[in-house]
Write a structure and sequence with these properties.
The protein has 69 residues and is mainly β. The chain is built from no helices and six strands. It is elongated.
Amino acid sequence: MSEQYAYVPHRLLRRRVRDIASGIEGELMAVINENVSDAGRDRWMELAYIRGASGREFTTCVTNIEAAD
């Protein structure tokens, strides 16, 4: 797998968000367009990096986040 990535601007950066899939809330730290290729085929995905209450970050697909107002 190639280690290629690019930061993507997002309107919710540094704001409180919710991961729809898990229901976990935290602060959106970054959105990265990341190469998640396998078997030699290029596959790019926008991943949201969220820092939870524990201070640990986790990732989810950027389409799975919403503002946690």
